[in-house]
Amino acid sequence: MWNVLLSFSGLVALIQLLFLPFFPESPPYLLLQKEDKAGCLKAMKQLWGEGNYQTEFDDLMKEKAITKGTKIMNVLEVLRERSVYPQLCTMLLLLLSLQLCGLKIFSTANLQESIIPYVSLGVSVSELISIIFCSSIIDRFGRRTLLCGGYLLMALILVLLETSLLLSDQFLWLRYCSVILIFLFIIAYGIGP
Description:
Number of helices: 9
Helix content: over 70%
Pfam family, one: Sugar_tr
Membrane topology: Multi-pass membrane protein
Strand content: under 5%
Number of domains: 2
Number of strands: 0
Subcellular location: Membrane
Organism: Acrocephalus arundinaceus (Great reed-warbler)
Largest sheet: none
GO molecular function, one term: D-glucose transmembrane transporter activity
Structural class: mainly alpha
């Protein structure tokens, strides 16, 4: 039944595509990108109901004034910008490590074919839990602390993961520890980076 489960996201996307034309554009988009003040106020009323949205409108006008001299870059321009290379490399390394380490661990752990879908579901659930947890503590600790802590946790978990993979032939129970470490890695990733 995994084909049904995977097609669910396609069904949700189809529903969004069908109903999207009936919704107004985002008020910040209308004001900041299109410079349509009347359309922005109309969209606010359509989205939020009748009321006075002058405070929100004034906040958007302040944001527009602040970003007036800022050039909006497309994807190719961003990729050509040398100042973002460290961030892009970090993101690519993290994404690749997330994608590649799980495949090797699940095959190394010799999990039964019938269990692997549940492990994959568990990975998604652990990612969801970490995102919810992060959104509740980010104001208390700040982004910088969560980023540094997340990277440190991820580095520690990767060291433990590599150790458990190296010793998994000698100690069979370490194979299952590797799967647990993958879950912890994803949680650390969701909380921090």
